[in-house]
Write a structure and sequence with these properties.
Strands 1, 2, 3, 4, 5, 6, 7 and 8 form an eight-stranded mixed β-sheet that branches. The chain is an alpha+beta fold. The protein has three domains: 106 residues, Butyryl-Coa Dehydrogenase, subunit A, domain 1 (Orthogonal Bundle), CATH 1.10.540; 102 residues, Butyryl-CoA Dehydrogenase, subunit A, domain 2 (Beta Barrel), CATH 2.40.110.10; 144 residues, Butyryl-CoA Dehydrogenase, subunit A, domain 3 (Up-down Bundle), CATH 1.20.140.10. The chain is built from ten helices and eight strands.
Length: 394
């Protein structure tokens, strides 16, 4: 495979001050996009201008090739501003990081996505779930197929939960290969790289969710979508011949999603503090922030966030250090981070009562958004069962 061209991409400034500035800009439009459910265009543009959507592009392509910890910092910052923007960014950053680690995209297609990224936001997402199958991490193979032709492939299928919607520049679609000389009992499984503007792609507006409403995680249908011969990238089966979904267990690159929810918890902490400083009950005659009860609640929120941040960065540091014992624990560490960020936001909401559940208060939105951390694979039950089996059979 030839090397893709070097592109003039936005240069990311990953200083705390620069990230805080992006957080503030993205936050300005978050509530509006939450209400409308539209693609968060302005937030994505802000992230693009700051170089955050392409920060993980490999250096050989003109990118900064940011590592896992810097990626986590980016997603915490974006998640604090607008988690819908952060989720679209997380999927894009993971796609570029995967390409930087091991080139697998067809050269011409990766050149194209980088050229688009030089001009503006060009989100990428792995489109995997299906209406009947659900999340592939639970097992099973997709009904979506790519049929071999004399000149390439034809893609047909119906996918669900395709985050990014019409904003996606490229889809990385999980499919089964339909080949004349293939083995029907053990077909090849892989991804096809699909430009988002090809004929035959239809979006179905199914996303009407409690949280991350602007993420545009709609269904998408592929009908006779024509693809070049090199668009299919096979996912190898295990040594036993069984295909296992890579998302069934957490790996070094799977901490982007929990990172963005740490950002949501930070936003909730800020909203709680702002409310507490401004709320002056008539019977008290001073801000509730001056009371020990509210101070203790603020401390509990801070504890939960510190716990999540320490678990997140600690896991990534151990991976960087080559600690061989961290691998089996990654899935349960993701569970622990999820529990911590949910607890932080729920603590803030419970302490303020009705005001925190009002649509006028951003805490209501943060509560809805943070609950979405639980849906990212591996989910809590599968992670705990796998860990339990490991412990009990050691």
């Amino acid at each position: 495979m030839t090397t893709a061209q070097v592109h003039a991409l936005p240069v990311p400034d990953l200083s705390e001050e620069a990230l805080a500035a992006v957080t503030a800009e993205v936050a300005e439009t978050a509530a509006g996009y939450d209400q409308s459910g539209e693609v968060p265009v302005r937030g994505l543009e802000a992230a693009h201008r700051a170089g955050l959507l392409t920060a993980t592009v490999g250096q050989r392509y003109g990118g900064a090739e940011a590592g896992a910890r810097d990626t986590a910092r980016i997603l915490i910052a974006l998640g604090e501003g607008d988690p819908s923007v952060a989720l679209i960014a997380a999927n894009t950053l993971m796609a570029h990081a995967s390409q930087a680690a091991s080139a697998h995209w067809p050269t011409a297609l990766y050149d194209d996505v980088l050229a688009r990224s030089a001009r503006g936001p060009a989100p990428v997402n792995a489109i995997r779930a299906e209406p009947e199958l659900g999340a592939p991490a639970r097992g099973g193979l997709p009904k979506t197929t790519v049929r071999r032709t004399s000149s390439g492939w034809i893609l047909n299928g119906h996918k669900a939960y395709a985050t990014g919607g019409t904003a996606l520049a490229y889809h990385v679609v999980w499919a089964v290969a339909d080949e004349p000389d293939g083995d029907p009992a053990a077909p090849r499984v892989g991804h096809v790289i699909v430009a988002g503007d090809l004929p035959g792609i239809t979006w179905v507006d199914t996303w009407d969710h409690l949280g991350l409403r602007a993420s545009n995680t709609h269904d998408v249908v592929y009908e006779e979508v024509e693809l070049p011969a090199d668009a299919f990238v096979e996912i190898p089966r295990g040594a036993d011949g069984v295909y296992r979904d890579p998302a069934a267990a957490a790996g070094p690159g799977s901490f982007g999603h929990p990172a963005l929810y740490v950002g949501v918890a930070r936003a909730a902490r800020r909203a709680f503090a702002d409310f507490a400083r401004s709320r002056v009950p008539a019977a008290l005659g001073r801000p509730i922030a001056t009371t020990e009860r509210i101070q203790a609640v603020a401390g509990e929120i801070d504890l939960r966030i510190a716990q999540a941040e320490t678990l997140l960065h600690g896991a990534l540091l151990r991976i960087e250090a080559g600690d061989p014992t961290i691998g089996p624990q990654l899935s349960v560490l993701k569970v622990a981070i999820a529990r911590s960020v949910v607890a932080a936001v729920q603590t803030a909401v419970a302490a303020l009562g009705n005001p925190a559940l009002s649509r006028r208060n951003s805490l209501e939105r943060h509560l809805r958004d943070v609950l979405c951390v639980r849906v990212h694979p591996p989910q809590e039950d599968t992670a705990l069962v796998a860990a339990g089996k490991r412990v009990l059979t050691a």
